[in-house]
């Protein structure tokens, strides 16, 4: 019997012309790309075809499974901490602006009795990545092996690591999407998030699905469909999964970038920080602990009494980071001031994300080094009073030439107005498996 063999142009053409990819074609193309026999240019063309044509639920499910099968699956079921099995739970966000929640959240969940094997990502498109942010802490490394992840789970309750051998197909595809304008695709987001998370060995999963201008999917209906798709993928793999739909019209908090977001996360862990960041961190911690079956004290107390900060220090120290060393600062800054008095109106999250990316916090080529100090501080949040001449935003970069393009992104993205903008709920809804 002759074995049917696939070739990349045929697979690309099928999707380009609006067809369905068969299970075998998906398995073949993911495996061949992971091994390097399908090239970046061919995968880039296929990703663009998927971006334009979409995939149905069965294709997404198979694409996700093929990405999981491209690497190994972790199993922490035999691990113990203080003689007890671990309550393993993880969270993943679909990508936002100023979304530093993972940083305080992991430590908070650990402080309340959970254990978090957090496979995290780098920046993608206009959104920042947890790993790029954490690597601005002097000495911190996310490139840790399985043995260290296991040891940290037992000793400090969490590890925040680059996915490495977990879903290596996603690692390659993620980096390619970042530089080929193919990030904003429901099938590609769902399969990227869920392949890492299902390979990671958590017993429960909370997904922060962003809704609004700063989310990858701009239409609210698409965010709902993304949430339903990912919850169904979790359920199909037997992992209790809950999606929390949250507002991403405005950036979260006052800091957007790499080191500046770590600094804001430290404020939250010290019991302060912006209200929205604190509220979302505490709400997601409650969801994670409930789903993991941990009958814990209120997470808000663990922020107030410093135990979450203690957990964060222990995680960072285990990964080589030194929190006593100063965080990197950019060499150049530029401040935007208020043209008039009034109230700060809405601030467009997508424009801020693009501005910060232009300042050097994200990449234009795969593997590029990001600027740790690049970012932006928002001095007046929507609804806050403004006097003429007040500082509104400060932009930070090591490359002064980047300031002009960043300011151009902010053009028309904010205004000072007479009345406070309409307030929106931060947490829109929840969907559970
Ligand atoms: N997070 C991921 O891991 N992948 C995406 O595509 C978006 C957010």
- Using the coordinates above, name the CATH class of the largest domain: Alpha Beta
CATH architecture of the largest domain: 3-Layer(aba) Sandwich
Find the structural class using helix and strand composition. Answer: alpha+beta
Bound molecules: uracil
**Which range best describes the helical content: under 10%, 10-25%, 25-40%, 40-55%, 55-70% or over 70%?**
40-55%
**If you average the pLDDT, what whole number results?**
96
CATH topology category name of the largest domain: Pyrimidine Nucleoside Phosphorylase, Chain A, domain 2
Oligomer: single chain
First-to-last CA distance: 43 Å
Major sheet strand order: 3-6-7-15
Count the E strands.
Answer: 15
Number of domains: 3
Query: What is the strand content?
Result: 15-25%
The low-confidence runs, each spanning 5 or more residues with pLDDT under 50, are: none
Explain what the structure shows:
The protein has 433 residues and is an alpha+beta fold. The protein contains 16 helices and 15 strands. The chain has a four-stranded mixed sheet with strand order 3-6-7-15, sandwiched between helices. Helix 4 packs across helix 9, helix 5 crosses helix 12 and helix 5 (102-111) packs across helix 14. Bound molecules: uracil. Residues 94-95, 121, 124, 188-189, 192-193, 196 line the site of uracil.
Task: Give a summary of the structure in a few sentences.
The chain folds into three domains: 8-54, Transferase, Pyrimidine Nucleoside Phosphorylase, Chain A, domain 3 (Up-down Bundle); 80-325, Pyrimidine Nucleoside Phosphorylase, Chain A, domain 2 (3-Layer(aba) Sandwich), CATH 3.40.1030; 332-417, Pyrimidine nucleoside phosphorylase-like, C-terminal domain (Aldehyde Oxidoreductase, domain 3, Alpha-Beta Complex). The chain has 16 helices and 15 strands. The protein has helices spanning 8-16, 23-35, 40-53, 57-69, 102-111, 130-134, 146-155, 168-178, 186-199, 220-236, 259-269, 275-291, 299-304, 307-318, 349-361, 403-410; strands at 80-81, 84-85, 89-93, 116-120, 158-162, 204-211, 241-247, 255-257, 332-337, 342-344, 375-378, 385-386, 391-397, 416-417, 427-432.
């Amino acid at each position: 019997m002759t074995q049917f063999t696939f070739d990349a142009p045929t697979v690309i053409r099928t999707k380009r012309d609006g067809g369905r990819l068969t299970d075998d074609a998906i398995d073949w193309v993911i495996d061949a790309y992971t091994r390097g026999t399908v090239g970046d240019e061919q995968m880039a063309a296929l990703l663009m075809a998927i971006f334009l044509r979409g995939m149905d639920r069965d294709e997404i499910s198979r694409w996700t499974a093929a990405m999981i099968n491209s690497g190994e699956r972790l199993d922490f079921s035999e691990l113990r901490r203080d003689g007890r099995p671990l309550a393993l739970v993880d969270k993943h966000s679909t990508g936002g602006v100023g979304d530093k929640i993972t940083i305080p959240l992991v430590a908070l969940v650990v402080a309340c009795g959970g254990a978090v094997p957090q496979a995290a990502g780098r920046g993608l498109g206009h959104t920042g990545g947890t790993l790029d942010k954490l690597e601005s802490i002097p000495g911190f490394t996310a490139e840790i092996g399985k043995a260290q992840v296991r040891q940290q789970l037992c000793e400090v309750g969490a590890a925040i690591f680059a996915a490495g051998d977990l879903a290596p197909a996603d690692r390659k595809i993620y980096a390619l999407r970042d530089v080929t304008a193919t990030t904003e695709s429901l099938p590609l987001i769902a399969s990227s998030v869920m392949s890492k998370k299902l390979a990671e060995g958590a017993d429960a999963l909370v997904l922060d699905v962003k809704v609004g201008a700063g989310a990858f999917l701009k239409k609210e209906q698409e965010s709902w469909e993304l949430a339903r798709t990912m919850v169904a993928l979790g359920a199909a793999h037997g992992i209790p999964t809950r999606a929390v739909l949250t507002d991403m019209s405005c950036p979260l908090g006052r800091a957007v970038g790499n080191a500046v977001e770590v600094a804001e996360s430290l404020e939250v862990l010290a019991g302060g920080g912006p209200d929205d960041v604190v509220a979302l961190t505490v709400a997601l911690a409650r969801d994670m602990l409930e789903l993991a079956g941990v009958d814990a004290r209120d997470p808000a107390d663990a922020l107030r009494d410093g135990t979450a900060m203690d957990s964060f220090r222990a995680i960072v120290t285990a990964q080589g980071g030194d929190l006593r060393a100063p965080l990197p600062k950019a060499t150049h800054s530029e401040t935007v001031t208020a043209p008039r008095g009034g109230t700060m109106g809405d601030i467009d999250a997508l424009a801020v994300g693009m501005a910060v990316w232009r300042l050097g916090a994200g990449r234009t080529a795969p593997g590029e080094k990001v600027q740790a100090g690049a970012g932006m501080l928002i001095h007046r949040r929507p609804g806050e009073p403004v006097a003429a001449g007040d500082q509104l935003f400060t932009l930070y970069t090591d490359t002064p030439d980047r300031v002009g393009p960043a300011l151009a992104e902010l053009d028309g993205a904010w205004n000072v107005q007479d009345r406070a903008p309409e307030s929106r709920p931060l947490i829109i809804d929840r969907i559970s498996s």
